[in-house]
Inverse folding.
């Protein structure tokens, strides 16, 4: 089955620690995205990538970093510079940047 | 700035009835796309329906239809014959040409009762 997988489902971060969220897709989509969702709010874009080895900042990129070394993978690192990382993180992909975005199941990040 | 407004924090509907979820948007662009997503308690965002700004006919996908009124800048989602499994959060979103992001509303929680 084609789709988007995210792991882990739950992630706990200690103060000062960097953590990495995984996002993999086997849909052969060119574009991939990371969104953050806080309680009672819609999604906000963190980073996006249209092609391999290229990515752009979204609205709330501070404290986050990404890489796109393979077409199917777009990991997100939450660095210690992100002071309020507790949120639900959703990865999405689309055939190209103008098409419908399809989402993975999400990762919930909690700070210990 | 582009903005999506969903004024209904929660909606209740009885099974088998129709329900309309409101969405208004604000943009000065002529070319844009409007989306509705469903988010069940599991968290995954499920794509429901899409309407392009130049589409003259309202989009339909099974029990979902999008009531697109361009002059009023509204893109309401209509769910016909509600089912218990329709209980979820529903988000309206807009993508405007040239930008690589979706702008989301704050969502409407729909509860379908037997």
């Amino acid at each position: 089955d084609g789709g988007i997988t995210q792991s882990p489902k739950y992630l706990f971060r200690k103060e000062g620690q960097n953590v990495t969220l995984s996002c993999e897709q086997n849909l052969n989509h060119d574009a991939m995205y990371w969104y953050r969702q806080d309680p009672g709010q819609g999604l906000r874009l963190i980073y996006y990538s249209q092609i391999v080895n290229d990515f752009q900042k979204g609205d709330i990129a501070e404290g986050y970093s990404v890489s796109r070394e393979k077409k199917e993978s777009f990991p997100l690192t939450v660095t210690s510079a992100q002071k309020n990382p507790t949120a639900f993180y959703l990865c999405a992909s689309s055939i190209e940047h103008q098409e419908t975005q399809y989402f993975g199941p999400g990762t919930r990040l909690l700070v210990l | 700035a582009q903005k999506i407004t969903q004024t209904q924090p929660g909606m209740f509907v009885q099974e088998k009835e129709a329900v309309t979820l409101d969405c208004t948007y604000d943009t000065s662009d002529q070319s844009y796309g409007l989306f509705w997503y469903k988010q069940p308690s599991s968290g995954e965002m499920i794509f429901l329906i899409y309407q392009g700004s130049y589409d003259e006919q309202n989009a339909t996908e099974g029990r979902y239809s999008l009531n697109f009124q361009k002059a009023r800048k509204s893109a309401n989602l209509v769910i016909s014959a509600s089912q218990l499994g329709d209980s979820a959060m529903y988000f309206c979103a807009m993508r405007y040409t040239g930008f690589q992001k979706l702008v989301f509303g704050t969502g409407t929680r729909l509860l379908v009762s037997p």
